[in-house]
Amino acid sequence: MKRSTSDKRSNPTAAAPNDADPQPQIVETAGELLDDGRSGIELIRTKGDKPELLRWQKGRKPISAPQILQNGKLFTPISADVSLWRATKLPSGLNEQGSPPKLFEDLVDLFVSSTGWPETQVLLIVGWVFVTWFSGVLANPLTLVFYGMEMNRAIQVFELLECVCWRPLMLSEAKQSDLSWLMKIKPTFLLNQPLMPARFRRLLQASNYRSVLMPGPGETVFNASCCKAMFLPPSRAWSEPGIHIPLSLTNGPVRFLDRKTKGQIIDRFQNSLLWYRLNNMQPICESRFANGGSEAYSPRDLAALLQLSTSNNDEAGWELLLQTGETEARQQQYLDPKVIAVEFVWPLWHLPSPEDIREKDVTDAVNTTLLTRGEVRQYLPQEIGDRLQELGFKVTRRGPGMYLILQRDNLRLLHRWAKEFGIGNAVEGCLDCVEAQIPKSQSV
Fold first, then answer.
1. If we measure between CA atoms, which residue out of 97, 95, 94, 119 comes closest to residue 108?
2. d(C-alpha 312, C-alpha 103), whole Å
3. Rounded distance, CA 217 to CA 198, Å?
4. How far apart are CA 339 and CA 293, in angstroms?
């Protein structure tokens, strides 16, 4: 797409006013929707540190310029620190080539080839990517929750999402006081924050409505609703409404993207996704998802939103995929050897006289439990020992065998993982249970 100039004679829409014109109202913007989604102004990236604006309207050629004059208002990109613009990813223009089904298929292929994850999970991830491009008009933007113990796998998928989502910001240790300035660019949050305080999670839920405002600096208010992807431990994931994806789906190596590859993915998809957004904005604006919402979408609601956002007419297929995915996701923890190992050790180290535990005994318990739960996969003692050490437990050789040692650090780890996995109940008189805030009743 050729970039227009700000010459008023050739392009009055993008012109800067001259001295004889009435002074227009200057409006800083991160994007505007006009005419009920039939036209608007978008941010696009340039070679510099500050974005430009793109004026679009159905049936007309788009115009890009540093400023856009529209209805007596002079729109200019929102002021934000250079680091914020560098952190997010913006399209550089519009790519009108390709059909929506082809765009969807290409994104699925990208995630499958990059992660090795099953296509059933990737379809939901890509569906959510499309939803993010309509985040600003949804009454209750959708959250995607990744859960598990391997942060590397979370970062692996976040790096891909960072290339294809609507204005992604990958963050850690975000807090309430950060929201007012982060929301200036209307982002999609990718939150690598497994220990996020429960109070902050509840705040993000309560403020995730387009009609709800939060107090900002001074005497200002702002809206904090946006699509979010979160990495959380299993015990916290199910308190978040949205789509849930387990991370421990494959045992292959984790490979991160280099800068060149990221740039290629951004160039390949961002402009096409912006074109898709502009051509499908009006139906979204007129839908019930822009004019109502639910704190916890039902599978049928989610299926309808995914169908509408992806222009895929198979709503029943989306609903079946969601129901299957949720069942598989819950089963993932049920059959995880790390979880079963903690489940086995928990009561033994709460006996009146607890002892060191043989690695072989833990292995036998894991294998027996897996068989009773319908899983034929069996583990060797060394494999279980490796998984215990991945959780941080100290395993020591004693004679011919390996032992899980009863010591202070291991006891604290046991309580930490029991809390994360939702395993075991608080034992009366156990100070570690009190310190870890183990509830009196948890479901395995």
1. 119
2. 12
3. 23
4. 35
pTM: 0.74
Backbone angles phi, psi at 63, to 5 degrees: -130, 135
Neighbouring residues of 96: CB distance < 8 A, sequence distance ≥ 6 = 275
How many CA atoms lie within 13 Å of 166's alpha carbon, on the beta-carbon side? Answer: 30
Report the run of H or E that residue 402 belongs to, with start and end: strand 401-404
3-state secondary structure of 20: coil
| 73: Cα separation from own chain's centroid | 35
Q: How confident is the model over 92-144, as pLDDT tens digits?
A: 999 887 789 999 999 999 999 999 888 989 999 999 999 999 999 999 999 99
Residue type, 442: Q
54-86: per-residue pLDDT in tens? Answer: 998 877 889 999 999 988 899 999 999 999 999
Question: DSSP of 173-241, one letter per residue?
Answer: S--GGGHHHHGGG--EEEEE-TT--HHHHHHHHHT-STT--EE-STT-EE-----EEEEE-HHHHTTS-
Give the Cα-Cα-Cα angle 342, 334, 193 (nearest 5 degrees).
Answer: 75
What structural domains does the chain harbor?
A: 12-79 (no CATH), 100-330 (3.40.50.300), 335-436 (1.10.10)
* All residues at 6 or more sequence positions from 343 whose CB lies less than 8 Å from its CB, including other chains: 369, 421, 423, 424, 444
Q: Which is nearest to 190 in space by CA: 143, 238, 246, 230?
A: 230
Pairing outcome for strands 188-192 and 168-171:
parallel
Distance CA 424, CA 335 (A): 16
Amino acid residing at 263: G
